[in-house]
Amino acid sequence: MKRTAVLGVMMVLLAVFTGCGRQSVSAPSEMKRPTVSATLAVVEKVPVDTPYEAVGTVRSRSAVTIQSKATGNILAVRVNTGDQVEAGQTLVEIDDREAAAQVRGAESALRQAQESVQEVEKSVQAAMHAKTASDADHALATSTYERVKGLADKQAVSRQVLDEASAKWKSAAAQAAQAGEMVASIEARRGEAQARIEQAQAQLENAQAFLSHTKVEAPFAGLVTKKWVEVGDMASPGAPLLEMEDVKQYRLEAVVDEVLVQRIKRGDKVPVLLDAIGTAALDGLVAELVPSADPSSRTFLVKIDLPPTPGIKSGMFGRASFSAGQKDALAVPVAAVFERGQLSGVYVVGEGGVASLRLITAGKRRGDKVEVLGGLDPGERIVVDGIDRVTDGCVVR
């Protein structure tokens, strides 16, 4: 019974590896090999890129820690960790009573300064009118004095009349000078009042800015990744409130050995694999090379922009594939290789065009080629098209 079972297994294996139809095992000389048509190629060495894999971590291109710019108790925290927010959305509210009081005080100071300027303007107008009148009196007194002096020189008027005209002329001159000084003084006060207005406006703008800081808004649309405070906490300038990141733009920050960093330049396209979201490589783009190395590991940080892809999150593990140069290696077309479970093989065509199954050790796929690490030698011919029609032992034309 055992011999019968073993004989049955041998018959099955023979049928599988011949694959050319049912043949008589008792007369091998009478076996006829079927003939099939297929495309052949000679195995040869070709230059292939030597890959270098750099590991890194996914980060958001825009990640910020939102800090408080105001002092006061936190009245409300409008978001939680993991919430999506829009640009300008209110995230945290801080007690604004002190800031509102500062705004009211600044507004009052501005009103007072404006009223002061109005009063000074009235005084300037009055002083200008007084100066105009004084200048007119001075002009009249001057002409009168000159006329009387002319008459006195001709002895047409008495000395007393001349003295009286001279006194009036000098008095008018003094009054005109005093009026001019008064105008200058009041105009100086107007400049001071105008300066107080500008100072009050600046204080009001500062107070309004301080008031606006009591409502903390999202700087951009994104994801809240961390919350540092709760209602009732005390906020102070510089204290962290929340952390946010932009979920539309991610990059892989990979660590590259110093020997290879010279081969990398900004704008290079780099395949990136993120195991957490699948096996398909993403088309990364080198965006930044940090110019200084880590002295402990002698490595450089390379930042690679990633395309928008569902499922990407900060902190994910990623691998970037760079070229470390080229080497000569055996490579065959992808279409020539078939796989059975964990095994890979090709059909090698030998003498007489007979195809034989050959197991190979396949390396990495590079475009439409597969690197062959073992199982083939240069110069051998393999089937590259039509392998679905070829079986072990068939004749290939």
Notes on the protein architecture:
By secondary structure, the chain is of the alpha+beta class. The protein folds into four domains: 98 residues, Beta Barrel (conserved putative lor/sdh protein from methanococcus maripaludis s2 fold); 89 residues, Efflux pump adaptor protein, beta barrel domain (Elongation Factor Tu (Ef-tu), domain 3, Beta Barrel), CATH 2.40.30; 58 residues, RNA polymerase II/Efflux pump adaptor protein, barrel-sandwich hybrid domain (OB fold (Dihydrolipoamide Acetyltransferase, E2P), Beta Barrel); 116 residues, Arfaptin homology (AH) domain/BAR domain (Substrate Binding Domain Of Dnak, Chain:A, Domain 2, Up-down Bundle), CATH 1.20.1270.60. β19 and β20 form a beta hairpin.
Which key features would you list for this structure?
single chain, 397 residues, alpha+beta, conserved putative lor/sdh protein from methanococcus maripaludis s2 fold, Elongation Factor Tu (Ef-tu), domain 3, OB fold (Dihydrolipoamide Acetyltransferase, E2P), four-stranded antiparallel beta sheet, elongated
Summed up, what is this model?
This protein has 397 residues and is an alpha+beta fold. It folds into four domains: 98 residues, Beta Barrel (conserved putative lor/sdh protein from methanococcus maripaludis s2 fold), CATH 2.40.420; 89 residues, Efflux pump adaptor protein, beta barrel domain (Elongation Factor Tu (Ef-tu), domain 3); 58 residues, RNA polymerase II/Efflux pump adaptor protein, barrel-sandwich hybrid domain (OB fold (Dihydrolipoamide Acetyltransferase, E2P)), CATH 2.40.50; 116 residues, Substrate Binding Domain Of Dnak, Chain:A, Domain 2. It is built from three helices and 22 strands.
